[in-house]
Design goal:
It is a single chain. The chain is an alpha+beta fold and 714 residues long. The chain has 4 domains: 83 residues, Cytochrome C Oxidase, Chain J, CATH 4.10.91.20; 300 residues, Catalase HpII,  Chain A, domain 1 (Beta Barrel); 83 residues, Hemocyanin, N-terminal domain; 143 residues, Rossmann fold. The longest helix is centred in the middle third of the chain and has 18 residues. It has 20 helices and 22 strands. Strands 4, 5, 6, 7, 8, 9, 10, 11, 12 and 13 form a 10-stranded antiparallel β-sheet that branches. Strands 19-16-15-20-21-22 form a 6-stranded parallel β-sheet. The relative contact order is 0.10. The structure holds protoporphyrin IX containing FE (HEM). The site of protoporphyrin IX containing FE has 27 residues, from β5, β6, β7 and α10. It catalyses: 2 H2O2 = O2 + 2 H2O. GO terms for molecular function: catalase activity; heme binding; metal ion binding. Belongs to the catalase family. HPII subfamily.
Length: 714
C-alpha cells in the first residue's frame, strides 16, 4: 500500500485519542504534602484518569522532584522531571516571518450559486454543496505577542477542505498590495518590521525605514492610501472585507479560462475604529479582536461572510487602463459587479490555539481543478514562498500530516519518510511506474488525467513566453490613477482620516528627506491631500515627483468607502452601560433587554465589581470602571443617581469614559443625573448625545459630523 492519508484526524487513527490530555475529569481529593504543597490525588486509581508521562508511565507525585534526602540535591535519574522540563524547553517554534499574530476559527462554506459554466471546481458545481473551512485572521508586521489594533493590513486566510483537496485562499482585508513583483517582498517586510539595529518599533509602520522604502516605490502609493485609511484599524475581525488580491483563473470543463477576483463581504458590514480609539484599545485590551471573535462564536453569534467573484475575460482586461496582473490595482465594482456565490460561517472555536491556529499552514499553491493561477509576478513568488517557509516554521516536510493541515479527502502518493512521519505506509510500492500488482502485491496509486489538476496554458495571450527577461511590463507603470480614485471616493471625513494618518506617521519619521519624498509623491495623487499633509507637518510642499505615466482620471467608486456603506443597527455591536450605587435597576434592565433583542450585546460597568445596592434590588457589573474603558464599546449609556454621579465626576476613569466615547464619535445615552459628568468631560449636546430612552432608536452608529468640532484633523 502507498501512503494513505487520514480521512479526518491522523492522531485519532493512530490511536492517540485515548491518550489526549483532558480526556476526562477524574474524581480527586486534595491533600497537603509534607512541605505544605497542594497535592491532588485520584480517588479511585483503578478507574480514574491517571496523569502519565509521554510514554504512558503513571506519575505518583507531580509536585516534587526526586532528591537525595528532603533537602538534598535533585537526582539525574528523575526521568519524570527531566521529561517535563525537556518538553517545556522546546515548546516554542519560530513565529511566522509575517502575519505572526493571528486568530483562527473553524466553520463551513456553502455554495449559494452554482457556476459550472465558468469553473469545474467541485465546490461550485451545485447550490447547497458545502465543505469545512478553517480561517486565520492576522496582523502583518507585529510579533505573535503584539497587540490586535495597530494600524496594519489584516490577513484573511481561508482553508477550504474540499472533496478535491485543500484550496487555500490566502488574502488580506485590502484588495491591493504594496508591490508588484515578489522580488521586492523581503525588502518591504524588512522595512516595516522593527528597525534592524534598534529592535523597535513593534507592530508599527510609523518609522523611518518603512516610509523611506515606500517613498522610493511609487507602485506602493495606492496601497498607502488604503493603509492610511480606516480600513487598517478595523472595529472587529467580523467587520472586515477580505480579498484574494490577485487575479486568479477559473477553468471550466471545456478547458476555457476566465479571470476571477475573490471578495469576502461581511454580513455585519464594514466598520472601523478611529485612531485615538485604536491606540487606547491596545492598552485596554491587547486581545480586543481575538476576544471579540472567540466570544461571538462561543455565544452562538456566528460571524458570516458572502463570497463574491468578479469574473472577466482577456478581451475586457486588454481594454483597461491598468493591467489585471498587477496586484497594486483593483477592479472597480462599478465596472465588474461582485457576484455572490457562497457563504462562509465561522461556528466553532479552536480547541487548542497552538495545535490549530499556530500550526495551520496556508499555501497559495493549494488550488483545486477549476481554479488556477495567473502570471501576476507577485502571486508567482508566493507560490514558492509559503511551502518553503512552512519547512522552516514547522520543521518538517511532513507538516501536511498535522491534523489542521491534512486534507479531509484521501491522499495517496509515493512520498516517504522524513522527520516526524506519523503515517505508516505499507508494502513495497514507493516508486512508480511499477508492476508489483503482477506479483499479487498492492502497486499503489496512479495519475488521473481527466480529473487531475492540469495547468491552464497562457499561450496566445498578451505575454510572449519564449523570451526570458527581467523586466516590469509597461502596463504596470501607472502608479497614481487608482490611488487618486481611492482617495476621491472617500467621504470628506474619511479623507481627513487619511490625511491625519499620514501626518501622524510622517511625524514619527525623523529623516526630513523621506518626509519630502512622500509629499512629492502625494502631489501626484491629489494636490489638496499633499497640501493638507504639508500643513499638518508645517513644511513647504516640495516639487512634484516625476510619474512614469500620465494620470487617468477614473470615476468615483462608492464601494471603496466604509462610511458610504455603513450598516446601522446593533447586530454585532457592544454597548457599555454604567451604573453605580442607587441606580435604577429597571432602567438598566430595560436598556439591556432592548439592545440584546436588537441583536447587540451589553456589558455592565460599575465602580465596583461585586453586588451593588441599587433601586429595585442589587446589580452586579461585568467589569470595573477603570478596567473597562469606553473604547471597548460601540456605544455607551449611563444610569446614575445624582449623588453617585457627583462622586464619579471627581474620578478620572469616569470622566475619561465619557470624554473618549464623545471623542470617538460614539452614541452616548444618559440619564439626567449624569449631566454633571458630561459637563466635566466637555460633552456637548448633539445628534448622538441623547436621553437613554432614545438609545434603541438612534442605535450605535458613529456621529462623524461631531469630529471636526472636537479634533483638529489634517
Ligand atoms: C511575494 C509576496 C509575498 C510573499 C513572499 C509572502 C510570504 C508570506 C510568508 C512567508 C508568510 C508566513 C506563512 C507562515 O509562516 O505560515 C505569509 C503569510 C501570509 N501572507 Fe503572505 N506573502 C506575500 C504577499 C502576500 C499577499 C499579496 C497577501 C494577500 C493577498 C498575503 C497574505 C498572507 C496571509 C494572510 C498570511 C498569513 C497566513 C496565516 O494566517 O497563517 N501575502 N506570507
Amino acid at each position: 500500500m502507498a501512503v494513505s492519508g487520514p480521512k479526518s484526524d491522523a492522531a485519532l487513527e493512530n490511536g492517540l485519542a485515548d491518550h489526549q490530555p483532558g480526556a476526562g475529569s477524574p474524581d480527586y481529593e486534595t491533600m497537603v504534602g509534607e512541605g505544605g504543597e497542594t497535592q491532588q490525588r485520584l480517588q479511585d486509581e483503578r478507574s480514574g484518569d491517571a496523569l502519565t508521562d509521554n510514554f504512558g508511565h503513571r506519575i505518583a507525585d507531580n509536585q516534587n522532584s526526586l532528591k537525595a534526602g528532603a533537602r538534598g540535591p535533585t537526582l539525574l535519574e528523575d526521568f519524570v522531571l527531566r521529561e517535563k522540563i525537556f518538553h517545556f524547553d522546546h515548546e516554542r517554534i519560530p513565529e511566522r516571518i509575517v502575519h505572526a499574530r493571528g486568530s483562527g476559527a473553524h466553520g463551513i462554506f456553502e455554495c449559494t450559486k452554482a457556476i459550472p459554466d465558468v469553473t469545474k471546481a467541485s465546490i461550485f458545481q451545485k447550490k447547497g454543496a458545502s465543505c469545512p473551512v478553517f480561517v486565520r485572521f492576522s496582523t502583518v508586521a507585529g510579533g505573535a505577542g503584539s497587540v490586535d489594533t495597530p494600524r496594519d493590513v489584516r490577513g484573511f486566510a481561508v482553508k477550504f477542505y474540499t472533496e478535491a483537496g485543500n484550496w487555500d485562499l490566502v488574502g488580506n482585508n485590502i484588495p491591493v498590495f504594496f508591490i508588484q513583483d515578489a522580488m521586492k517582498f523581503p525588502d518591504l517586510i524588512h522595512s516595516v518590521k522593527m528597525e534592524a539595529d534598534r529592535g523597535y518599533p513593534q507592530a508599527a509602520s510609523a518609522h523611518d525605514t518603512f516610509w523611506d522604502f515606500v517613498s522610493l516605490m511609487p507602485e506602493s502609493m495606492h496601497m498607502i492610501m488604503w493603509a492610511m485609511s480606516d480600513r487598517a484599524i478595523p472595529r472587529s475581525l467580523r467587520m472586515m472585507e477580505g480579498f484574494g488580491v490577485h487575479s486568479f483563473r477559473f477553468i471550466n470543463q471545456d478547458g476555457d479560462g476566465k479571470f476571477v477576483k475573490f471578495h469576502w463581504k461581511p454580513v455585519l458590514g464594514v466598520a472601523s475604529q478611529v485612531w485615538d480609539e485604536a491606540v487606547k484599545t491596545a492598552g485596554a485590551d491587547p486581545d480586543f479582536h481575538r476576544r471579540d471573535l472567540y466570544e461571538a462564536i462561543a455565544s452562538g453569534d456566528y460571524p458570516a461572510w458572502d463570497l463574491g467573484v468578479q469574473i472577466f475575460d482577456e478581451a475586457w482586461a486588454a481594454e483597461q487602463p491598468y493591467d489585471v496582473l498587477d496586484a497594486t490595482k483593483l477592479i472597480p465594482e462599478e465596472d465588474i459587479p461582485v457576484e455572490i456565490i457562497g457563504r462562509l460561517t465561522l461556528n466553532r472555536n479552536v480547541d487548542n490555539f497552538f495545535a490549530e491556529t499556530e500550526q495551520v499552514a496556508f499555501l497559495p499553491s493549494n488550488v483545486i481543478p477549476g481554479i488556477d493561477f495567473t502570471n501576476d509576478p507577485l502571486l508567482q513568488g508566493r507560490l514558492f514562498s509559503y511551502l518553503d517557509t512552512q519547512k522552516s516554521r514547522l520543521g518538517t516536510t511532513n507538516f501536511h500530516q498535522i491534523p489542521i493541515n491534512a486534507p479531509k479527502c484521501p491522499f495517496h502518493n509515493m512520498q516517504r519518510d522524513g522527520l516526524m512521519q506519523t503515517l505508516v505506509p505499507k508494502g513495497r510500492a514507493n516508486y512508480e511506474p511499477n508492476s508489483l500488482n503482477e506479483a499479487g502485491e498492492d502497486s499503489g496509486p496512479r495519475v488521473a488525467p481527466e480529473t487531475g489538476f492540469t495547468s491552464f496554458s497562457d499561450n496566445g495571450e498578451r505575454n510572449d513566453p519564449t523570451d526570458k527577461m527581467r523586466i516590469r511590463a509597461e502596463t504596470f507603470a501607472d502608479h497614481y490613477s487608482q490611488a487618486r480614485m481611492f482617495y476621491l471616493s472617500q467621504t470628506e471625513n474619511e479623507q481627513a482620516h487619511i490625511a491625519s494618518a499620514i501626518v501622524f506617521e510622517l511625524s514619527k519619521v525623523v529623516m526630513p528627506h523621506v518626509r519630502l519624498r512622500v509629499l512629492s509623491r502625494l502631489r501626484n495623487i491629489d494636490e489638496d491631500l499633499a497640501q493638507r499633509v504639508a500643513d499638518g507637518l508645517s513644511i513647504a510642499l516640495p516639487e512634484k515627483a516625476p510619474a512614469a505615466r500620465d494620470l487617468v482620471e477614473m470615476p468615483i467608486s462608492d464601494a471603496l468607502s466604509i462610511q458610504k456603506n455603513a450598516k446601522d443597527g446593533f447586530a454585532g455591536r457592544k454597548v457599555g452601560i454604567l451604573f453605580a450605587e442607587g441606580s435604577d435597576k429597571a432602567m438598566v434592565e430595560k436598556l439591556k433587554t432592548g439592545v440584546e433583542k436588537a441583536g447587540g450585546s451589553v456589558f455592565l460597568v460599575a465602580p465596583k465589581i461585586g453586588p451593588l445596592k441599587v433601586k429595585g434590588g442589587t446589580l452586579e457589573a461585568d467589569g470595573k470602571l477603570d478596567g473597562s474603558p469606553s473604547v471597548l464599546f460601540d456605544a455607551i449609556a449611563s444610569v446614575l443617581m445624582p449623588q453617585s454621579a457627583e462622586i464619579l465626576s471627581k474620578q478620572g476613569a469616569a470622566v475619561q469614559w465619557f470624554m473618549d466615547a464623545y471623542g470617538h464619535c460614539k452614541t452616548i445615552a444618559h440619564c439626567p443625573g449624569t449631566q454633571i459628568i458630561l459637563d466635566k468631560a466637555g460633552v456637548e449636546k448633539d445628534d448622538g448625545v441623547i436621553p437613554n430612552e432614545m438609545l434603541l432608536d438612534k442605535g450605535p452608529k458613529r456621529h462623524w459630523a461631531r469630529e471636526p468640532k472636537i479634533r483638529d484633523l489634517a
